[in-house]
Amino acid sequence: MMRKALLTVGIVLLVVVAGGTVFVASRQNLRFDATPYPGVTASTDSAVVERGRYIVRDVAPCAACHGDPKQRAAYVAGADVPLVGGFEFAIPPGEFYTRNLTPDAETGLGSVPDSAIGRAMRYGVGHDGRALLPFMEMQGLSDDDLRAVVSYLRTQAPVRNVVPPHHFNVLGKVVKATAMAKPVGPATTPPARAPRGKSVETGRYLVESVALCWACHTQRSQMTGAMTGPRFGGATGFTESTDPTHSWSPPNITSDPETGRLGKMTEDQFVARFRQGRLIPGSPMPWQAFSRISEDDLRSIYLYLKSVPPVKRDNGPPVVDVKKS
Description:
By secondary structure, the chain is mainly α. It has twelve helices and five strands. The chain has helices at residues 2-26, 46-59, 63-66, 72-76, 114-123, 143-154, 170-177, 200-210, 213-216, 267-276, 287-290, 295-307, and strands at 88-91, 94-97, 167-168, 246-248, 319-321.
């Protein structure tokens, strides 16, 4: 009887594993061609291109991930390095590489239509119809800013740079077939025009859809990217691929009087801190870019962050030497 029971259990497990393997394999190359294309056409208007440059270089800033990995020091120093991609993210699901955003026809965006670039940013669907990794969370970008970004990218010098394909390990393939199977679109309808001028609304737009402050200042799963901690409450265990010897802890940026950074800063102090740039060597915060954000936008960001619910969460020191801990 025992042998028969074990045989039955073994057969059941074999069927489950085989079924799971087939399921995962069948969902590795799902396509979402029915996803709509935004009506985006690049402009040559200097004001539109400049707005795109401001978003791409200062507020987003795209070079943090898509900049030339060989010019990392120049980027940290404030240079506008080529957006050739190739930066590696080594995380539990595998190794992932940022794409070449220059207009090179073979290895970049040169042969990709404007509308397809817009669809990738807004709906998370690549020009080949596959779901993109949910790492570039700018789905809420306004229609005019989406056009501005595409317009600026078109003005860049084309650079040939062959980026390696993503490598999903076994665990990554399971995640890709389940938690990351569908592309991520905007939570609400994006505005036609981005809010401008000092206001909470402008700050909300910049924080939530452009600068993405919550993306680093909230504890997230290394497996799926899902938020696992209180929003804006800070995070721990943030290690850059270029500096694995240190573990960074993006601080709590709510207005909690004891543990939140904004609980201890006035609006003027907030602006002054951004103008100072990087004070802690190696900090993953793109201070060299953020220090160039306009006065009204910085003050708007402060106003919005002051409006979010305070979170009591102490994340410890901003940086820990992994070798000594």
